Amino acid sequence: MRLWMRVLFVLMAGMPVAGAATLDVEPFVRQDMYQGVKISPDGLHYAVTAPLEDRTALLILRRSDNAFTARISGDANSVVDDFWWANNERVVISMARRQGSRDTPVAIGELYAVNVDGKQSMLLASPYGVNERAGIVSEYKSTFDQSVYMLDPLADDARNVLVSAMPVASDPFIRIEKIDIYNRHRARIADVPVRRADFKTDASGEVRFAVGANTDNVSKLYYRDARGQEWRLINDEGSSGHRRYPLGFSADGTLAYLQVERKAGPDEIVSWNPATGEEVELLRDAVVDPYRILYDLDGRTPVGASYMRERVDNRFFDENGRAARLYRSLEKSFSGDAIRLTSATADGRLVLLYVWSDRNNGDYFLFDTQERKANRIFSRREWFIPDQMPATRYVSFKARDGMTLHGYLTEPRGAVAGAKPMVLLPHGGPYGVFDGWEFDDDTQLLAAAGYAVLRVNYRGSGNYGRAFTDAGVREWGGRMQDDLADATRWAVAQGIAQADRICIYGASYGGYAALMGAVRDPELYRCAVGYVGVYDLELMHSDASSRSRSGRTWAAEWLGERNTLAARSPSRLAEQIKVPVFLAAGGRDERAPVEHTERMEKALKRAGVPVETLYYPNEGHGFYTQPHRRAYYQRLLAFLARHLGGATASAQ
To answer: Residue 598 is inside which H or E element, if any?
Structure first.
């Protein structure tokens, strides 16, 4: 990298700025250059996803000179959910939709295919139907069809892939089909005995497991020995009290691997012999669930799992196996950064590595297993220099009822020791989502502005076993909120936070938690920020219940009875808020409709609470466009600076 560029990036990423007057927000506003990367089976091309302002494109690059040879993208708000090399010349792409930067992409059941030279670009399947007229490659019909999801690229079949086809209906039954990636021909392979199912295939591409739930949301796991054999029920959550998820099969096909919930503590990974029923525990952490399953170079045989606590720790079923030895040798070279193999050539010589950490937004390296060399080929955001970013450390403490809570603390780089102004940053979700040891934009921005940032995995979060998640059932505004207050008091007692200079800020559920924090614990916080939040639980309950029978079940089980929710809705409790509030929302938000924010704003004004707002009618669940993201962070830093004293955004 040229010296002047490196100097520029260092300045942009932000040297220590505790007490600084202004901060450049541009590095945090800019989109990633690249996201997902996979190498072709023959090693001649890369498939790469590149985010644009309001959608994500898939690009094909020739490895010899990095020249672009093909591109495919959907319409506005579309995201490449995943992609697969079906053979050396053709890539299959699954599309998702995301209504905003904070929204979780949801695959819509739409598959495309394209050749490496850009030819034969084709819409394979879509819930909106595909027009079969000659010459039409991506035209919808006017009638609804099935949503189609990739299941297995079928490594030994260059022409077909295996998919699951889901009728466009509430709580549907799904069937397995094979689809020709050159002419869209589809053949029915199997039906399954449970609704809303996910599947796992064996090395030959045969569907062997189905796990799903009917309208009661009770998980059921089925297994069959081969195509045409009867499905047999392996686990029923209703009777066992826990869920089991299939991960794959051993290289010789004799064993299956399952992730199994336990009554207390985190999940374990076991081997299960379908012939004998014998089950053997392979991996289990004392605190956290498996974070990500690790696969052999074939991309389908499970060999271990990653665990996220103090950092990311890889563990293997067999430490002497090929993949384990490769991982261990690479870990020494990358000195503590997290490593994941994303893909490999068919001969196993070239392996694509993804490397990241709490200070590194993510780099891709190509590793030659014969020459033992790794070269960086792509970076998600190379303008962030890891050595110039503040580190994040794992913390743990007790809640008031004795439950152990876990979280992550990031402090300004180079700041003097002692208590600092702090921002408590509850994550969204809330259930099953969790904060981890990773690069987080808001955290890094706020630390660069001079704040300590505390992210807490309150009860209801994922990663700590089902019992920890279930402890958040019907605890919106209750014990989940107590956990955040306890975390704040812990930070003060530890000398991390200045007691009179703490704000609470969150997005989505985090926005709800921020406003409820101001309601329930007004003495703890100087201000509150809610970004694309939900503030009226009766409205949320009604929306969830109207979507499907399973949605009604979820709302009753996890939120509670509708007539109990007003007492836990900050929009109904605004008179208890005593600190200034900043609210931001998008008019096209489908996950947290703008009506929530509008009701919250009106309630605050009626109560005489100082409130600032920022609305963009054409944005969704988090702002997409660069000017809007810039304006949001400018307003956020200005608001926090008035109440906590940190940096404001520099003029653009």
So the answer is: helix 594-606
* Three-state secondary structure readout of 214-243: CCCCCEEEEECCCCCCCCEEEEEHHHHCCC
Q: Which amino acid is it at 12? A: M
Per residue in 101-123, is it b (16+ CB within 10 Å) or e — as a string? bbbebebbbbbbbbbbeeeeebb
Q: How far apart are CA 30 and CA 471, in angstroms?
A: 38
Say how far apart CA 124 and CA 122 lie, in whole Å: 6
**Contacts of range 255-260, beta carbons closer than 8 Å, 24 or more positions apart:** 256/208, 256/209, 256/223, 257/282, 257/302, 257/317, 259/290, 259/293
For the chain, helix, strand, coil in percent to 5 are 20, 35, 45
The model's confidence at residue 128, banded by pLDDT at 50, 70 and 90, is confident
Q: What is the pLDDT of residues 305-332, one digit of tens each?
A: 999 999 999 999 999 999 999 999 999 9
CA distance linking residue 158 with residue 160, whole number of Å: 6
Q: What is the Cα–Cα distance from 477 to 186, expressed in whole angstroms?
A: 49
Burial of 322-350, coded b for 16+ CB within 10 Å and e otherwise, reads ebbebbeebeeebeebbbbbebbbeeeeb
* Residue 444 bridge partners (DSSP): none
Tell me how far apart the alpha carbons of residues 652 and 642 are, in angstroms, rounded to a whole number.
Answer: 20
Domain ranges of the chain: 390-647
pLDDT in tens, 499-548: 999 999 999 999 999 999 999 999 999 999 999 999 999 988 887 766 67
- Cα-only R_g, the chain: 25
| CB-based contacts of 11, cutoff 8 Å, min separation 6 | 24
In angstroms, the CA 334 to CA 370 distance is 18
CA 555 to each of CA 43, 310, 465, 542, 551: distance values in angstroms, whole numbers, following the listed order: 48, 34, 21, 8, 6
The residues, ordered by sequence, that sit 6+ positions from 577 with a Cβ below 8 Å of its Cβ are 515, 518, 519, 522, 528, 570, 604, 607, 609
Q: Answer for the pair 162, 188: CB distance below 8 angstroms, yes or no.
A: no
Q: How many CB atoms lie within 10 A of CB 443?
A: 23
Residue located via tokens 């180079």: 414
486 sits in which H/E element: helix 479-493
Contact status, residue 622 vs residue 586, Cβ threshold 8 Å: yes
Beta strand residue intervals within 481-607, DSSP E? 497-507, 527-531, 581-586
Name 347's Cβ contacts closer than 8 Å, sequence gap at least 6.
none
Q: Which of 280-294, 307-321, 462-476, 555-569 has the lowest mean pLDDT?
A: 555-569
The span from the CA of 269 to the CA of 165, in Å, is 29
Q: Are strands 312-316 and 302-308 parallel, antiparallel or unpaired?
A: antiparallel
Gap between the Cα atoms of 301 and 317, Å rounded: 11
Q: Which two tokens stand for residue 647?
A: 């940096």
Q: Give 469's contacts (C-beta < 8 A, 6+ positions apart).
A: 431, 432, 459, 460, 461, 462
In this structure, what token pair is assigned to residue 34? 């690249």
Which of 215-229, 430-444, 603-617 shows the lowest per-residue confidence on average (mean pLDDT)?
A: 215-229
29 and 15 Cβ atoms separated by less than 8 Å: no
CATH level 2 (architecture), domain 390-647: 3-Layer(aba) Sandwich (3.40)
Residue 588: both structure tokens together: 């096209």
Are 652 and 637 within 8 A, CB to CB? Answer: no
CA–CA separation, 635 and 563 (whole Å): 36
